[in-house]
Amino acid sequence: MAGSGDAQPRFVAAGPGESPAARVRGLRKVFGRTVAVDRIDLDVPTGSVFGMLGPNGSGKTTLIRTLLGLTRPSAGTVQLLGHPVPDAAAAALPFVGALVEGPGFHPFLSGRENLRRGAAAEPLLSGREISAAVETALERVGLTDAAGRRYRGYSLGMKQRLGLAAVLLVPRRLVVLDEPTNGLDPAGTRDVRRIIAELHASGATVLVSSHLLAEVEATCTHVAVLQAGSVVAAGELSRLLEADTSGLVITTPDIDDALRALRGAGATAFLEGRDAIVVADGGPPAPEVIALLVRAGVEVHEARRRRPRLEEVFARLTEDTP
User: Fold this and answer.
1) Residue 272 neighbours by CB under 8 Å, 6+ apart
2) Fold of the domain built from segment(s) 22-242
3) Can you tell me which family this protein belongs to (predicted)?
4) Binning pLDDT at 50, 70 and 90, where does residue 18 land?
5) Residue 177: Cβ-neighbour burial (10 angstroms; 0-12, 13-18, 19+)
6) How far apart are CA 206 and CA 98, in angstroms?
7) Which of 83, 127, 139, 161 is deepest in the core (most CB within 10 A)?
8) What is d(CA 65, CA 61) in angstroms, rounded to the nearest whole number?
9) 230-236 and 222-227 beta bridge pairing
10) With contact defined as beta carbons under 8 Å apart, do 276 and 307 qualify?
């Protein structure tokens, strides 16, 4: 993928008390005897990059489809850019770009021809703007050289890129990406990360559903974790990780001496990796731990609070939920 986000207009970022880009209250969706989404309350803050996480069957796609007016809720309310959905979805959807459950295009048309058809249906694009918008979107996702090939000959990654290009045809206030890196190689994944960063910098809100926790941790400002149709945790990613912090990590080349000194002082300490020790909470405070090690002749190269990765937090939240 190539290009830059310089041409993207900047939206005003969220201010205190500003309405969220998307909001659901008491949302419930039932398919026959299956409860796909069960009494969910959730806000997607304006200007955020919001990651939606959950195992298969947790309700992520159903929630996204309900937000976009593709599925009518069994109960509860949905707002998208301040408009009730599905009743007033037409007022919000021109400002929303979405890639949900994989892209769908005409197999015998080229990538460019498919994109032109999509652009012709965009209410925010005039006829004279279509050609430039299509070429710019193709460039941004790295499909310019393959734009003349028929869609049926595209690889999975190329199809995903074309779907993303359709999302980028016009400036959006909200972009919804369901597994956007599906089928992409590492270079394509990095480009998706770049495009998300460009959208965020422009002030747009980005909602990303993904099973790649490292990508979510690298790109998102907020997350919601779903399990069995319910939200088990939601909020700012940094606060979610900080809330799960426990222990002090000491990096030292003198592992054996450090463990001996710490355990001799009554601290609970255990090895983490090849050159680090975790000192569990509940023992001596951090300044005393450092002073103890220095007095014991242990070289302390680094000391920091333990901050778990999103993968650890996700596993705990989903495994602890019945």
Assistant:
1) 249, 278
2) Rossmann fold (3.40.50)
3) Belongs to the ABC transporter superfamily.
4) confident
5) buried
6) 10
7) 161
8) 6
9) antiparallel
10) no
- The one-letter amino acid code at 26 reads G
CA–CA distance, 34 with 42 (Å, rounded to integer): 21
Query: How far is residue 173's CA from residue 170's CA, in Å, rounded to a whole number?
Result: 10
pLDDT of 213: 86
Q: How many CA atoms lie within 13 A of 99 on its CB side?
A: 27
Q: What is the pLDDT of residues 120-137, one digit of tens each?
A: 999 999 999 999 999 999
- 271: tokens are 């090895």
What residue spans define the domains of the chain?
A: 22-242, 246-306
Phi, psi angles (nearest 5°) of residue 300: -105, 110
**Gap between the Cα atoms of 31 and 84, Å rounded:** 22
- CATH number of this structure's domain 246-306, picked from the four choices 3.30.70.100, 3.30.300.20, 1.10.357.10, 3.40.190.10: 3.30.70.100
Q: Are 75 and 36 in contact (CB under 8 A)?
A: no
